[in-house]
Amino acid sequence: MKKIHLIVGARPNFMKIAPLYKEFQKYPDKFDIKLIHTGQHYDERMSKFFFDDLQMPVPDEYLEVGSGTHGQQTAKIMERYEEVLLNDKPELVIVAGDVNSTAACAIDAVKLHIPVGHLEAGLRSYNRAMPEEINRILTDSISDYLLTPSPDADENLLDEGIAKNKIYFVGNIMIDSLIQYKEKAEKSRILEKYDLYPSEFVLITLHRPSNVDKEKGLLTILNAFEKISKSIKLVFPIHPRTNKQIKVFGLEEKVKKMKNLLLTPPVGYYDFLKLQMEARFILTDSGGIQEESTFFGVPCLTLRPQTERPITITEGTNKLVKLETEDIIKEAKNILKGNIQKGKIPKYWDGHTAERIVEIFKNN
Ligand code: UD1
Ligand code: UDP
Domains (ranges, CATH) in the chain? Predict the structure, then answer.
């Protein structure tokens, strides 16, 4: 019986860990699985909603770390998770993605000589100003099982000198959840709730510090929204970081004045998938939404200078846009005119990634 910890902390972790948790549960004689929640995200709408939609049990350990500076948050996670590790002594720890909880728990584990598996290993934006890039590099460099979503990730790891026998191209685990819950999402009533019609709205999410933490950047984006909203409705489930920054910069009035901009609290997983499926296009700086929109074949404009998910551009429906009001408007108009990039679904984004991963651990 192998004792394994699965780590979640922030919103994008839940849909990556849920399919793996369920797949491991199919082999109760082989695996003893514990779910650990660091508490990096804690609002009901950033955490509990996902446990409900993804049909996940209450975590075995909840570390309640909350928000803070990078140093504070990372240190708190490390201090609290180390105690859990010392008491519980798992044989393997699996972390996902690139958030602070990912790197902090991986460091704790390797220092206690516990092997680490990294889901979504090998992605690189090559922009070290992004906190996530530091988390990716740190986590990959100390992990024993590098579970990659796309061939570019394998190449990045090999370029960094990581041994080939640690790298496993398993596919995109986030798409496992998407495929599993697509039917439920199709039945979501979110369109009726907000009086929306298919293809008659743009779906927006924003939360990168580089876009929302400086007034100039946020204004650049809101000015573009003002113009685009004259042609089509904008639906904007707002991330708590962005909500806070709009208040800090006193931009609430500007946002309220845009009659065709619908601001909502963050929405649950089924509702958000439904909004993605039905949107004319998506405007985002999220990592995962670039991938989900590629799966749905819905055009995506990513407000970033580069992406760690280049396959969403080369094979999918994603396009990068500069943080300039005119560029954002130009690209949006282009899509509204019908100039859209057709994409395909990348290899192993097929709903079977969790199975491929569990197969690795059954044999190791
Ligand atoms: C984090 C991740 C980011 C990921 C994003 C997904 C890091 C460094 N960043 O960014 O990679 O893309 O999650 O959503 O790990 N807050 C709340 N309620 C919550 C959580 C946060 O109000 O439940 C507010 C707090 O004011 C907090 C701020 O949001 O200070 C930022 O939260 P934090 O977890 O530090 O970073 P995110 O921007 O959420
Ligand atoms: N998501 C959601 N509700 C929202 C916004 C996002 O369910 O209001 C989902 C989205 O479908 C995807 C994940 O959250 O599965 C992406 O998380 P986020 O954008 O917060 O993080 P990132 O991927 O940028 O790290």
Answer: 2-171+349-362 (3.40.50.2000), 182-336 (3.40.50.2000)
Q: Which of 37, 207, 239, 352 is catalytic?
A: 207
Q: Please tell me the number of the ligand nearest to residue 302's CA.
A: 2
Taking only the tens place, the pLDDT of each residue in 35-51 is 999 999 999 999 999 99
pTM equals 0.98
- Beta-sheet strand order (sheet of 233-237): 261-264, 233-237, 201-205, 281-284, 300-302, 318-320
Q: Which residues surround ligand 2 with Cβ inside 6 Å?
A: 11-12, 15, 205, 237, 266-267, 269, 272, 286-289, 292
Residues 257, 229, 308, CA angle at the centre, nearest 5°?
Answer: 115
Tokens of 24: 């491991």
Instruction: Give catalytic status of residue 207 as yes or no.
Output: yes
Closest ligand to the CA of 190: 2
Q: Is the pLDDT of residue 341 over 90?
A: no
Tell me: the pLDDT tens digits for 324-336?
999 999 999 999 9
